[in-house]
TrEMBL record:
<dbReference type="InterPro" id="IPR001608">
    <property type="entry name" value="Ala_racemase_N"/>
</dbReference>
<dbReference type="InterPro" id="IPR029066">
    <property type="entry name" value="PLP-binding_barrel"/>
</dbReference>
<dbReference type="Pfam" id="PF14031">
    <property type="entry name" value="D-ser_dehydrat"/>
</dbReference>
<protein>
    <submittedName>
        <fullName>DSD1 family PLP-dependent enzyme</fullName>
    </submittedName>
</protein>
<dbReference type="InterPro" id="IPR051466">
    <property type="entry name" value="D-amino_acid_metab_enzyme"/>
</dbReference>
<dbReference type="InterPro" id="IPR026956">
    <property type="entry name" value="D-ser_dehydrat-like_dom"/>
</dbReference>
<dbReference type="InterPro" id="IPR042208">
    <property type="entry name" value="D-ser_dehydrat-like_sf"/>
</dbReference>
<feature type="domain" description="D-serine dehydratase-like">
    <location>
        <begin position="257"/>
        <end position="364"/>
    </location>
</feature>
<comment type="similarity">
    <text>Belongs to the DSD1 family.</text>
</comment>
<keyword id="KW-0456">Lyase</keyword>
<dbReference type="Pfam" id="PF01168">
    <property type="entry name" value="Ala_racemase_N"/>
</dbReference>
Length: 380
């Protein structure tokens, strides 16, 4: 807790979080997955916050996904024991993985090659090997092997022969972030499920139990209609949401739980600009909406009460300066924001924006009162 203050009292730029919106976002996804009968393994990479994670499982440690070993270590220190490290493993990280497993953490790693499997097979925790999920490529977005690739059972056999556990498969439908509209999002979710189940069946036919069939992204988690054969769903962005998610129809701007508070520092009325002290160091350079039907620049602009200014965008950014201007073609008037006025920037990409800061300033619902500061996990 901190001494009572408001969004007008803190040094800008900073992150503000509405915990009531976070709780509503969590409740929405949890209800959807409960209806489908599949548990959530939340990805903590977006918030990197023990306080946010505490909202996921009623204050108790639950299954999580991490993107760095620093996250795994911080959450292990807080009592989390069921963790998937969902970035391809490399040999030099195995010592830290082994240390966590010796502490009683069921830390599972990810891989997609025979080379990684061979390295993992040489690492042991006491008398047991390190469990692994094999990454499956369902849409060509990034890493993984296709479910029909002949190398898939070879990877599994390399693990098993070396004493490592073939825990199952993991799929991430990364291209779903570009699937605009409900029909395309549902199709992406079904393709993700189908590829994961197919890959698990290949492994089982080759003699591996492969008990875990893990799928997930924030878009597909919300639009999955059938999760037959899936054992868990991973998602992370949903706790905060952002303009990319709003742009493809996963949420509305009212669901964005995190904003960047900045201060007006000047004007260039000849250019139609309002200048702020929040540049890309505060919001990141992510321009994810530039590929969408509506380009939101570096973010939408609202007052401290959360009311959006009509057609006002953060249209440009340098390191410590933000430029606010009207959307091209707008007939709205540039708002009268004097030097010293504070505004909120609604971010394009919550993960990237959060990564620019080391803490969240937590407000009361429907208020500018700041009641707590939640730290973020730092490091790799």
């Amino acid at each position: 807790m901190i001494a009572r203050s408001t969004l007008n009292d803190l040094e800008t730029p900073f992150l503000a979080v509405n915990p009531a919106t976070v709780a509503a976002n969590i409740d929405r996804l949890r209800k959807h997955l409960d209806e489908l009968g599949v548990p959530l393994r939340a990805h903590v990479k977006t918030a990197k916050s023990l306080d946010v994670a505490a909202l996921l499982h009623d204050g108790r440690p639950g299954p999580i996904t991490v993107s760095t070993l620093a996250e795994a270590e911080a959450f292990a220190d807080a009592g989390y024991r069921d963790i998937v490290y969902a970035v391809g493993i490399t040999p030099h990280k195995l010592a830290r993985v082994t240390m966590l497993r010796r502490r009683g953490v069921d830390l599972v790693v990810l891989l997609d090659s025979v080379e990684q499997a061979a390295a993992l097979a040489t690492a042991r925790t006491g008398m047991t090997g390190i469990p692994a999920l094999i990454e499956i490529d369902c849409d060509g977005h990034r890493g993984g092997v296709r479910p029909d690739d002949p190398v898939l059972p070879v990877i599994a056999r390399t693990l098993a022969d070396g004493g490592a556990e073939v825990r199952g498969v993991l799929v991430h439908a990364g291209e779903s972030y570009y699937a605009d509209g409900a029909d395309r999002l549902r199709a992406a979710a079904e393709n993700e499920r189908r590829c994961a189940v197919q890959a698990a069946e290949v492994l089982r036919a080759a003699g591996h139990e492969a008990p875990v069939v893990s799928v997930g992204s924030t878009p597909t988690a919300h639009f999955a209609a059938d999760l037959t054969g899936v054992t868990e769903v991973r998602a992370g962005n949903f706790v905060f949401f952002d303009l990319v998610m709003a742009g493809i129809g996963v949420c509305s701007t009212a669901d964005l739980a995190m904003t960047v508070v900045t201060t007006v520092i000047g004007h260039r009325l000849d250019k139609g600009w309002i200048l702020t002290d929040g540049g890309w160091m505060a919001t990141s350079r992510d321009r994810g909406t530039a590929r969408q039907r509506v380009d939101q620049g570096y973010g939408l602009v609202a007052d401290l009460d959360g009311e959006l200014y009509p057609d006002l965008l953060m249209s440009d950014a340098s390191q410590e300066h933000g430029v606010l201007s009207l959307r091209p073609g707008s007939t709205a008037a540039l708002p009268d924001l004097p030097v010293g006025a504070r505004v909120r920037i609604l971010p394009n990409h919550a993960c990237a924006t959060a990564a620019q800061h080391d803490r969240y300033h937590v407000t009361e619902p429907d208020s500018t009162a700041v009641v707590a500061v939640w730290p973020r996990v730092q490091g790799w």
